[in-house]
Amino acid sequence: MVITRFAPSPTGFLHLGHVRNAREVWTFARAHGGQVLLRIEDHDRQRCKPEYVAAIREDLAWLGFVADREVPPQSERDAAYRDALAPLVAQGLVFGCVCTRDAVRRHDASAIHPSVMHEPRYPGTCRDLGIGLDDGVNWRIRMAPGTEHFHDLRLGPQSQDPAEQCGDVMIRDRLGNWTYQWAAAIDDYLQGVTHVIRGEDLVESTGRQIRLARLAGRAAPATFLHHALIMHPPDGNTPGRKLSKSNDDTGIRELRARGLSRSQVIALS
Predict the structure, then answer these.
(1) What global pTM score does this model have?
(2) CA–CA distance, 149 with 259 (Å, rounded to integer)
(3) Structure confidence at residue 115 (pLDDT)
C-alpha cells in the first residue's frame, strides 16, 4: 500500500506553499488508494509553538485535507531516534562536533557544491578528535564516499554523494534538537512511509536521507517525488524566490480573512 505523509513544521502559519504540497500529497495518495499520515515536525523546540500546531490542524480541516492517521510529533520521539542511533554509535560512526554553522560556512566559502545553493560542506574538523556525545555539542554521522542513486517520479534519475555534497551529516545540534535530516529519515522508515512527496527545494536532502535510513536498517528506500514550488515572480535582476513563512508570505488565514473560499485557495496553489 502507498503510505505518504504531510509533515509541516509549526514555526509559523500555513501558506500557499503548504497548500501546494498538501494538494500533491493527497492527490497522489487518493489516486493510488493510499494513506496520508499527518506528522508535526516540531524537532526545533526553540522555534516551534503550540499555537502554530493548533492553527495547522484548523487550516487543514478548513481546506478539507483529512489525514488517515496522525502520528506522534517529533518532539515526542526522542527515544525512537536514540534507539535508531545506538547501533551506529556502537560501530563508531557517530562523533561529537563543536563547530558552529558559521565556522563550517567560512571554511567552505569558496567550495560550495555547485548544485546546492548556499550549502557548505562540513570539512571533518572534529571527526577524529574523540569528542564525546555530550550535551552542548553537535552530533554527526560519518559519511563514507559513495553515490546514492534514486529515481525521482518527476525529475527522473538522480545521483548524489553525501560525503562530497555535505560531508558528515549533523543529526543532533548543541541545543539537543534532532535535525530535520535524521528525524525525517528515521520517521519515514519507522512509520512505513513508502512515498515521500515534497517540494523540489528538498531534492538535495534525498541522498543523505536514503543513506541515513539504510544505516539505521531500512532495507529499501522510499520512493521520492519532488514537485514544483510556487515562486514569487522575478523582480528586475532578482530571480523569483519560493514562498516562506519567515517572509510573511500569503498565509491561509489572510486569504480566509479576505473572503476566499476553500476551492479558491486551493486553486491558487
Answers:
(1) 0.90
(2) 46
(3) 45
